[in-house]
Amino acid sequence: MVDLIPIVVRGYQPPAVASNPVAAQFTALDDLFAHYPILTLVHVVPGLLFMMLGPLQFVPTIRARHLRWHRLSGRIFIICGVVIGLSALAMSFAMPAIGGFNQAAATTLFATFFLIALCKAFWHIRQREIALHREWMIRAFSVGLAVATIRPIIGIFFATSRFSGLTPREFFGVGFWMGFVLHLLAAEAWIHATQPHQQAAGFPE
To answer: Which one of 15, 172, 191, 192 has the fewest CB atoms closer than 10 angstroms to its CB?
Structure first.
């Protein structure tokens, strides 16, 4: 946001050429988003609220003592999620993918799944199906949070590129697939591990 808002205000200016090859790669990555500052801001600004409100949705004490706030923040969370998902789809098609088709396929598939999960979570809570609402909220938040895991995975690929010989175009897609799949597997494992506790607590199936 700090880098992109000045570009929106003053217009795009090419970055300085870095002498270090690794630094030049990172500069080129940032420069890609600098060419689409508004679309990127539409994606990342709701992401800030999404990341802040997401963990609070799963705190039992808040749900029990502040149900009205939980419902309000939940609606904001879902609205932000929809904007994030739709803008991710737009970025997949409107912006050149660093990792080529492999990365675009991963972002398109998981952005679509993310939107479906949000819609199903909203549908189930409207039907007062609490357990199913919880499951789909976990899936949605886990996929949305995957970007936090993709970053270090990509960082590892960058750090080992001198030995592997892989370029960002070759490993970006792999990093995206790894991050999204790991998060979805973690979500399903958590849902499975905590389901008996939810049933014991009297939540409906």
So the answer is: 192
